[in-house]
What we know:
Chains A, B: Pfam families: STAS (PF01740), Sulfate_transp (PF00916). Chains A, B: It comes from Jatropha curcas. Chains A, B: It is found in: Membrane. Chain A is mainly alpha-helical and 649 residues long. The first copy, chain A, folds into two domains: 358 residues, no CATH class; 152 residues, STAS domain (Transcription Regulator spoIIAA, 2-Layer Sandwich), CATH 3.30.750.24. Helix content of chain A is 60%, strand content 4%. At the A-B interface, helix 1, helix 9, helix 19, helix 20 and helix 21 of A face helix 1, helix 9, helix 19, helix 20 and helix 21 of B.
Amino acid sequence: MGNADYECPHRVAIPPAKPFLTSLKSGVKETLFPDDPFRQFKNQPTSKKFILGLQYFVPILEWAPRYTFSFFKADLIAGITIASLAVPQGISYAGLANLPPIIGLYSSFVPPLVYAMLGSSKDLAVGTVAVASLLISSMLGKEVNPNENPKLYVQLALTATFFAGVFQAALGFLRLGFIVDFLSHATIVGFMSGAATVVCLQQLKGILGLVHFTHGTDLLSVMESVFSQTHQWRWESGLLGCCFLFFLLLTRYFSKRKPCFFWINAMAPLTSVVLGSVLVYLTHAEKHGVQVIGNLKKGLNPPSLHQLAFGSPYVMTAVKTGIITGVIALAEGIAVGRTFAMFKNYHIDGNKEMIAIGMMNIAGSSTSCYLTTGPFSRTAVNFNAGCKTAVSNIVMATAVMITLLFLTPLFHYTPLVVLSSIIICAMLGLIDYEAAIHLWKVDKFDFVVCISAYVGVVFGSVEIGLVIAVSISLLRMLLFIARPRTVLLGNIPNSMIYRSMDQYPIANSVPGVLILQIDAPIYFANANYLRERISRWIYEEEDKIKSTGGSTLQYVILDMSANGSIDTSGISMLEEVKKNTDRRGLKLVLANPRSEVIKKLEKSKFIEAIGQEWIYLTVGEAVAACNFMLHSCKSNSVTVDKFDAQDNV
Amino acid sequence: MGNADYECPHRVAIPPAKPFLTSLKSGVKETLFPDDPFRQFKNQPTSKKFILGLQYFVPILEWAPRYTFSFFKADLIAGITIASLAVPQGISYAGLANLPPIIGLYSSFVPPLVYAMLGSSKDLAVGTVAVASLLISSMLGKEVNPNENPKLYVQLALTATFFAGVFQAALGFLRLGFIVDFLSHATIVGFMSGAATVVCLQQLKGILGLVHFTHGTDLLSVMESVFSQTHQWRWESGLLGCCFLFFLLLTRYFSKRKPCFFWINAMAPLTSVVLGSVLVYLTHAEKHGVQVIGNLKKGLNPPSLHQLAFGSPYVMTAVKTGIITGVIALAEGIAVGRTFAMFKNYHIDGNKEMIAIGMMNIAGSSTSCYLTTGPFSRTAVNFNAGCKTAVSNIVMATAVMITLLFLTPLFHYTPLVVLSSIIICAMLGLIDYEAAIHLWKVDKFDFVVCISAYVGVVFGSVEIGLVIAVSISLLRMLLFIARPRTVLLGNIPNSMIYRSMDQYPIANSVPGVLILQIDAPIYFANANYLRERISRWIYEEEDKIKSTGGSTLQYVILDMSANGSIDTSGISMLEEVKKNTDRRGLKLVLANPRSEVIKKLEKSKFIEAIGQEWIYLTVGEAVAACNFMLHSCKSNSVTVDKFDAQDNV
């Protein structure tokens, strides 16, 4: 049964073997430098290369010379707007991390300056974020009680910030930024909504004016803590909180309807703080159960290099906290940077951004700042306020500096409940139920990932939610490979095109030929499955032929168009399939094996075994050849042995 | 720029949406029941279903009625042959696990009987294996010293066997057998070779007649232990060991050259034991530094249910040991069963085998047996001896029973060094350097997996080697998805076929059209990469056109033939690519989106955004449409806006 008479219209090419080092080099380059960052350095004199290199790592050198006064006017307005948001948010989020409020203000001074020099985003507004703050308090709080041992707790928070920065910068330098990509969109939606829910729940402490509160972040602990001390609830605090929350939600609603009034929303937190402080000062509400911030130290960030507790027994906790919060902060910062870069049509290099965010946190950790990144809310305000460059961050830092130098006493009477309202209002915007509905409609699996992240965060802890969601996402990818779809192809009428018979009901099967396509690379994880699945396709087809009485099966064509890769287990699988088909008197034919696959099939001598003449460029040509053989066989009345493949003892 | 005039030859079909539960059900079925085990139950009366079900779980009921005397003759010979191997191997491997030698004999009695009833392989010979024995001693030995507390150690070994059995059976019942597939061929080659090396190294204790020996299994500990006590080496023992090793290797070499003399190799271990015992008995060598087995208790397996130490503080160690050794044993047993089933052309159901092996270990753990599976060497001997069914296991068990009842005193003078020689000889066959060379030739990545498993086992520990190899294998799969290949397609001359220009140097690019193919599902892990990579392809193409002066780029065709799946992050990526191409004045065209992809694109309204008329069944048709548009555009002198995409501040 040869096909020497049949002339094959096109041959499948076997690309020449590349030397090992060449292919290794190109593999590493595609994996770690997919964006070809050295492109601009090519064919440049050394001095120019040096300048370009400096500009690569310190982008301000590149754009500062072209900075104009009209840019500055825009950046000034944007900077002042985000400063008005930064001050109350800084104080609030520091409270969420169980850190002294002043550290929240410090964190809006140094990191924005560093980012303005090193960052490549024109819109990112730097600051602390709620989720990372919550993570710090939950992870460090397990080891050190912030009320009993505040000094050690602050040291650990700064140390964690340092390690977060080192980890972030290292990811960037080592071009491993793609690790952040493993937090899928669905994971982030579920995780952020869950974290926002948890943060809102934590605010019940402030709203209800409770003094004692659980250290747990899960729904059950919080509910138990709230309802076990109903007699401690303070109506004054609650009333104030609800009023301000209503005010903040109203301004947000208004700004959403009319985007040109974005500044109303941006100014609302500061307005609330001022109103609240004045109210407390006038009514002396601090003596009637409304807790206030109290004294804030005047002056700029004190250096804190000596506070980094590398020798502490809790240093491993700090490292762990740093790595987890660092990844979360990176994911938010880079996603936000990319989103706004796309609006303005410029490009952001993820790895470069990681270095910038990492350096800003390393610098922050030695100047009494805790973890910062580019929060979505503040960046959106910055963008809407018309910022042109990172100078808006410098303006914000200057405004915060003035606050630190002169205005801190004004916050003495600021009620904590206002800060809680600000946090709740910001967090409610993060609970993205519309995105979850969209996920359910488009991709059920993504919805499962999203919901498990949410449930994990709300009922377990932030880390549990994250681990569950990432595991399920990875499982999906592994499952895609471990259980690839195999589809039956049929002929689209009046064409040489073969497509899935499930997708195209008009496609017709070819008598005597079984055409299969496998939708994934053939790897060890699916080799056994595919072997069994292919033999099931064969006997199902034979059963069908038996019951309907068509022409007997003679050829099995494997369309390998969708097999991007194969490993040695996969090749063994093909060898076994070949043995199996030979034993049943069937001929195995391959169509369109891809570059990598055909190279390996050649090296492992599988091509010799199957015969080069049984490998075709398209399914159409393979079927044509099979049909040619079928008819010439029939006319020569060649009989094909059929081996009885039933299991007998 | 529409293409309303152009008539599309074939339309891409959007398969009708299936109800959620239907698709969930078919997904679960494909994942857990790919081999359709209930097929034979269809359309059968209830009584028949019951019988079939019973035969499904107890295969002996199915084949016993058809058992003939000629089968029995063959099985008798095979059974006696493997029994002659089982007795010395059982004693040796028990020593490797630091268990009393008699437990090794017990383990060749009950488990083969259980397997004969439940197993579906006709060739598998049941027994203990070296690697699992070594694992037991290294994992349990860390917690309990077998010399100081032998009773507890034996209890833990039996408990670990019990948990291994439960875990194995549970995997089978839950249809999770594919977990074993994650041990790739390359992993197993490296792991087995490494374990064999480690086992050989451990035998230096016996060969050199050392009394004190390290509990570590890594090369460095063993070498230190050996060379720190050179004055303790016993030449008598060494000489005896080398002689027997030479004899065993010689018989193996001879049997390999002449397969019909397989029995010489099979009988050699028992011959060595007899010769060694006689020699020691005659020369009283046990008084000159040659250690002997000593007294073995007569009698059959005592029940050991009461010895299972569920309440022990070390129970978690036993669970962990059970799970790891259970998986390793399963992997070996199933791989061996499948290999020999393929020779004889019958099918083995992996999940059913797991239940059989699991039940045999559960039964074993309550009758003083430790972990058993189907070792390759013994099964190969069984196969070569011409076994027909699992009755050969029953014959072997009977022979072992006779040994236990009457012959144990004969082993009193058996020198340990002979057992060491038997182990070394068996292990040298497992070091498969030829397979490693093959891996290097065919697939460099598999070679890395193999070598890291080997190095991990030899220099670290058995568990470390396993974890490293499995992680690298999984990383490869993730990397395949995280960094998919994107290839440039060109036209094969005189055809409508488009193929990779790397693979087919004869393929020509189409002026004004960039055709890309992505080789993996579009998932969150690669969405960012692909977005950047596609825009790099576009600007590289534009640079090329600028420098060579061809016709300007107008169309980007994405061939989606190899994209088996997409998730919501992938869809967002496509939306961004569309925005990006729109901004550059390019038109995005899709070719051959697959069933799952097109369904999701429709649900997410991406098809509306791109326009149904820009989705083609093949690349050829897409190119034809683009060419049609290009020329009609030119003749109408429609100019296309080109947006300057350079980054300016």
